[in-house]
């Protein structure tokens, strides 16, 4: 693979910085930084479009990884230490950075292959989204669906806080709550709304064969568009002064409960 030296004004460096903030224009494109993260991606279905290598920062232990990545990458570029420091999250720069494409799958395909899904309704915090992806990966949730999208899923903070989980858990963005509800119903899912004002303690809820757990916006909760009459509603008991948990924490508790029930 030919390696080309490029400067800070190269279009792909500008594209990298754009993707770092997240881009709805390129929803399946992500950035990855550092040997540990990129090595994780090699075990997913993500494709390396562009690989950026800073030879001044490379260690001997990274040589085999770089060779393997270079063989699988569409394009390989060499960058200076100065550029690596400018575009990296790390103060001293990263030796290996990449632009990644995640292969998208349709909603019907994802649901036909799933038994447990989590739906993120209007979440705004990249950190919360990443935490939920990380929990879904750890507890073997089959997929994540996103409705009322507020935060860009390919923002680098989602990737970082998910520890790469967003590359391993199938996900898709759904146009509307109505479309999401219809698809879930078609595939035999029970919608389970996680909301602080629900009367049923999540620990006492029935065990559903195909649950679809919905968690809502950090400030406003689950949107009113969901059909509450045909959904089951659960809450997490609060014994202190606070009336609710952070959505990332609450989702993790409920997701792990689902996982333990399935494996019981």
Report on this structure.
This protein has 264 residues and is of the alpha/beta class. It has 2 domains: 3-101, Ribosomal protein L30/S12 (60s Ribosomal Protein L30, Chain: A, 2-Layer Sandwich); 107-263, 3-Layer(aba) Sandwich (Alpha/beta knot), CATH 3.40.1280. Helices cover 34% and strands 20% of the residues. It is built from 10 helices and 11 strands. The strands form 2 sheets. A 6-stranded parallel β-sheet has the order 8-7-6-10-9-11, with helices on both faces. Strand 6, helix 6 (126-138) and strand 7 (143-147) form a beta-alpha-beta unit. The protein starts with a strand and ends with a helix. 39% of the residues are buried.
Task: Throw out a few tags for this protein.
alpha/beta, 2 domains, 11 strands, Alpha/beta knot, six-stranded parallel β-sheet, 264 residues, 34% helix, elongated
Q: What structural class do helix, strand and pairing data support?
A: alpha/beta
Gyration radius (Cα, Å) is 20 Å
State the CATH architecture of the largest domain: 3-Layer(aba) Sandwich
The DSSP helix count reads 10
**How many discrete domains?**
2
> CATH homologous superfamily of the largest domain, by name?
SPOUT methyltransferase, trefoil knot domain
How many strands? 11
In percent, how helical is the residue content? 25-40%
The coarse overall form would be elongated
Largest sheet: 6 strands, parallel
Low-confidence sequence ranges: none
Report strand %.
15-25%
Mean pLDDT across all residues, rounded? 89
